[in-house]
Amino acid sequence: MTDMVTARSLLDRLVAFRSVSRDSNLELIDWVAEWLEGQGITVTKVPDPAQPTKASLFAQVGPDVAGGVVLSGHTDVVPVEGQDWASDPWAVVERDGRLYGRGVCDMKGFDALALAAMAAAARRPLKRPLQIALSHDEELGCIGCIPMIEAMAGLPRASAVVVGEPTMMKAVTGHKGGLAFWVKVHGHEVHSSLMHTGVSAILEGAKILMWVNEMNAKGQGAAKVSPFVPPWTTVHTGEIRGGTAHNITAGLCEFGVDFRVLPGEDPEDWRRAFLAKVAEVELGMKAVHPNARIEVKERFALPGLAPEVDGVAEGLVRALTGDNGSQVVSYGTEAGQFQVRGWSAVVCGPGDIEQAHKADEWLALSQFEAGWAFMEDLIERLCA
Ligand SMILES: [Zn+2]
């Protein structure tokens, strides 16, 4: 079997695992670990400390020295419910130069290439190591990778991390971070004719939403030169519900508040500013009724990827792909999680994000082949 054929058959196998983020990924992780071990590669599984049904893994081939390269992928995929697929999403179908299946693009295509690259690299005289990192819960806000990345501190430090999210094999050097909250405003119900004695959860929640609007206006006004579109941190509410009748001060109003944070700004500053606003509104509510309160639940916090100055990872990918353009994207990836922990990171993988998460998700065969060419050149480089 050529290595490319190995990669292709690995893709079939990986897609067949229904590793939707809400479900266990242990079957997939165990199978991959066993497959790598079959190639003579030692694997470290990292169980999720909070969820016994989930795990990540990492492995290394080559000498135990610093300066290697990490290939980073996630094992979870988005659900298929409610999507109209032309063929079974859990079986890779090849037609018209395309591979169809859930996760072929995001991102089991890259996972398969990375695994085949590990096996190929294990047979080569590497001077620097190749490492693989396969995470879980990426689609839930890039949270599952954290214990794995922390455990990887025990490996010789790699000089670059390539996160294989679909970029059409272009170097993506930056993305915004994310911070998401769910807010529940608990008011005090009275007849609205006596609203001065009640607390309307809707009107109090609106004060927080006014702050959201203010932050957007302020950000836009102070926009700096930046490759990001738009070049400021945006704050958004995409869902809201509350109230029961026109003449009752609302007892409950709940909504989401999501930040897309420009790299270079500290998400902690945004968290503090937001929570200070919530506390201020709550204080006013409690002055009317002591039981009125605001609950805030954090949904996720995801560091952005800041374009690095003379970044090693970016330089590596540019050398391997010949891509000299400059690209940043608006979706989050695990590259930010690696970068905040001290690695040089870049996003580069086969396929177009446009084809991800949809019915009939596909990956062009030519992209899969370009991905394999990338792996071969990378191995060559690690031998030099
Ligand atoms: Zn992905």
TrEMBL record:
SUPFAM superfamilies: Bacterial exopeptidase dimerisation domain, Zn-dependent exopeptidases. GO terms for molecular function: acetylornithine deacetylase activity. Residues 173-280 form the Peptidase M20 dimerisation domain. Keywords: Cobalt, Hydrolase, Metal-binding. Pfam families: M20_dimer, Peptidase_M20. It comes from the Bacteria. Its EC number is 3.5.1.16. This is Acetylornithine deacetylase. The gene is argE.
